[in-house]
Amino acid sequence: MAKRSAAAAPESRSRRGARAHAVRFLQRIHHRFLRLLGATTPKTGRRTAKSARKVVRPREPKSLRAADEKQEQDVEARSPDAAATATAAVSASEAAVAGKYWAHRYSLFNLYDRGVRMDTEGWYSATPESIAASQAARAAPGDLVVDAFAGCGGNSIQFAARGCYVVAVEIDPRKVELAAHNARVYGVEDRIEFIVGDFFRLAPFLKANLVFLSPPWGGPSYIHAPVYTLDMLKPKDGYATFQAAQKIAPNIMMFLPRTVDVTQVEELSWLSCPPLDFESEENYVHHRFKGITAYFGRR
Ligand code: MGP
Question: Which residues' Cβ are closer than 6 Å to ligand 1?
Answer without folding.
Answer: 100, 124-128, 214, 216-217, 219-220, 222-223, 255, 288, 290-291
